[in-house]
Amino acid sequence: MELWIYGIIAFGVMLSLLALRVPISFALGGVAVTAIFLLFAWRTGNFMPERAIRATLSLIFASTYDLVHSYDLSMIPLFIALGHVAHRAGITTEIYETARVWLVRLPGGVAIASVAGCGGFSAISGSSIACASTMGRICTPEMLRLNYDPRLATASVAAGGTLGSLIPPSVLFIIYGIFTETSINQLFLAGILPGLLSMAGYAAAIMIWVRRDPSIAPVPAETIPLREKLVAAARSWPAVVMFAIVVGGIYGGIFTATEAAALTLLFATLVGLGRGRMRLADIVPTMRETAKTTAAIFFIAACAKTFVAFISLTGLSNQMVTAVGAAEFGPWAFLAAVVVIYLVLGMFLDPVGIMVLTLPLMIPMVESYGMDLIWFGVVIVKLLEIGLITPPVGLNVFVLAAVIEDKVQIGRIFAGITRFLAMDLVVLALLIAIPSISLIVPLTMR
């Protein structure tokens, strides 16, 4: 049997396990280890398991070691910890409060402020799930108190939470950069304009919705004095400084992404302690939560790396590139297939799982078409962002429902999400049709 056929069989077994709701890390790791062992055991034509043990363990440990000892990977726990510290220090709350006091008198202003707050949180934490969870506790109860329609009050936060995937720093960009060996600094910069475009799209979706039905977002009677607005804006200075460190430092060539992560984490910790919002005792539970989240991401990535090593052994990627070339699919047909695949997978799997599952097969074909890997990374992350709010398993929707203790039924949240999904598709089409939206900022660094 040809090795690439063996690779297809293993890939099919892994997809079957996922269909049976086996966690993606166990599906990837279990299939990869078993398949590698059998591959080496049958290498001579006779089944000789004793000769396969050393080779299998060597390959697993080598791929895992290379991943865990990656310098770029060290920024993941730093940015995760930054999100926890910024929340405890009240920095993320201040971002939302600033947007709220300035926009509260606009139709749908508090919902737009929630999206802006999610964008600001995303620029600190890099995690969409953390963004939806944290901002859901802050924004949704406030909108419900102001008699906003529950669909708008929840959907705006669930959609806004996805900005954590695109606005730098982004955990997904870090993983993409490691698996594709592209510059994480340039990926971060490439996400800036698409992230702002997505945020503007969500704000536009809210304004269109409220204009058609003003009753869903009553305008509060309170008038906030200009002085209070200016005080709120001044109070959010730590978030501005942190964003400037990450984006300005990387763009100016002052810091690497990892150095920026470490510096902003130190800065946020000192701000929290200096303001009395945090105590030294709070650092321990913060690091404990960071360790749990990091361990889960690293375990998935390590299992994926082992699976990638197996795919390389079988030559399946090369065979697929050859088959696609022989079929003479154009780049637009390939991109259409990628969009469909990611939108379907996004309905059932988490973003990290989708990325590590598909990249080993996708990237060789992307390179064969001569596409820019930075631009393609932005398109992929945008597709993963859409998957976070796509029914039936939009992770951000379920996280938000849990945070607000099911005060709004999941069905009603998804009913509000449809308008934001439509805007997401518009933004996605623009990113695909006009690559310069993603590339104009990182190109100035090259």
Automatic annotation (TrEMBL):
GO terms for molecular function: transmembrane transporter activity. Residues 11-436 form the TRAP C4-dicarboxylate transport system permease DctM subunit domain. PANTHER family: C4-DICARBOXYLATE TRAP TRANSPORTER LARGE PERMEASE PROTEIN DCTM, SIALIC ACID TRAP TRANSPORTER PERMEASE PROTEIN SIAT-RELATED. InterPro entries: DctM (IPR010656), TRAP_DctM (IPR004681). Part of the tripartite ATP-independent periplasmic (TRAP) transport system. It is found in: Cell inner membrane. It is a multi-pass membrane protein. It comes from the Bacteria. The gene is siaT. This is TRAP transporter large permease protein. GO terms for cellular component: plasma membrane. It holds the Pfam family DctM. Keywords: Cell inner membrane, Cell membrane, Membrane, Transmembrane, Transmembrane helix, Transport. Belongs to the TRAP transporter large permease family. Its main location: membrane. The complex comprises the extracytoplasmic solute receptor protein and the two transmembrane proteins. The chain crosses the membrane at residues 6-39, 110-131, 152-176, 188-210, 230-251, 295-317, 329-349, 425-445.
